[in-house]
Amino acid sequence: MNTVIVPVDFSETSLHAARYAARLLTGHYGVTIILYHSYSKAAEAVKATEMLEQLKAGLMKDHIVKMEILAHEEDDFVDGLEKAARHRRADLVIMGITGKSAIAQVLFGSNTLKMAERKVCPVMIVPESAPFSPLKNVMLTSDFKNTIESTPSAPIKDFLNVFKPQLHVVNVDKDHYISLTEDYEKEKQEMGKMFADYQPQFYFMRLYDVDEAINLFAESRNIDLIIVVQKTSSFMDKLLRNSRTKKLTYHSKVPILIMAE
Q1: Is residue 132 part of a domain?
Q2: How many domains does the chain divide into?
Q3: How many CA atoms does the CB half-sphere of 61 hold within 13 Å?
Q4: What pTM value is reported for the model?
Q5: pLDDT digit string, tens, across residues 49-80
Q6: What range does the domain containing 198 cover?
Q7: pLDDT tens digits for 89-132?
Q8: Lateral strand order in the sheet of 201-205
Q9: Which runs of consecutive H residues, i.e. helices, occur in the chain?
Q10: In angstroms, rounded to a whole number, what is the distance separating the alpha carbons of residues 200 and 15?
């Protein structure tokens, strides 16, 4: 991991994400954080740059990190952020999200989810209520279907290699009862081989409410980060689009890392 972009609009939600990123990457000397801000009018350029410089100075005063700033005039926030991520070859974007009000969700929340859907690079969503904690326990959710083809093992391993957490692989399925089917057992073995270097622990939960199950597991196992794989017409689409399961991203107290298939 070399470059991490943190978009800020100077709201408390985005500032919280910036502080989280600085703490997360403190001591990782090969990583550069880019504080990114887009503005709509050329007259705002000087002020935007000054505010970014102030934020950078404050974060670097308290955290040992490499940091740069980037301000662009853009008509569309997500288009500008995607372009910045491509041009800087970002390995990760860290963004805030809020669940406080419907208006806040529409503004910053929807932009966060839209950026994740662009699949230009992994996106870490940091809930406004998420306290920082070192990444000691990471949950990887999986539907255990075509795991070899559908699991982006290389970027997941790249991330795990940076923080070296304990890996918990979790599947929630309403059809599991006492024992796993042969197909699921085969997929488990494949996943075990894929992440053998990280000594993964596997969990299969029989619950109907996926987001509730994930939140309960995260709380019970002191999970510091949830990794989900974004697929077409699958678990991740339901996670992002279904009004019931959106509360996992809007109300979770645990950051969520979205990886594209």
Answers
A1: no
A2: 2
A3: 6
A4: 0.85
A5: 999 999 999 999 999 999 999 998 988 888 89
A6: 137-260
A7: 999 999 987 644 343 443 445 677 778 777 789 999 898 878 89
A8: 66-73, 32-39, 3-7, 92-97, 123-127, 256-260, 225-230, 137-141, 166-172, 201-205
A9: 12-25, 45-62, 77-87, 102-104, 110-118, 147-150, 153-163, 182-194, 210-220, 235-241, 247-251
A10: 33
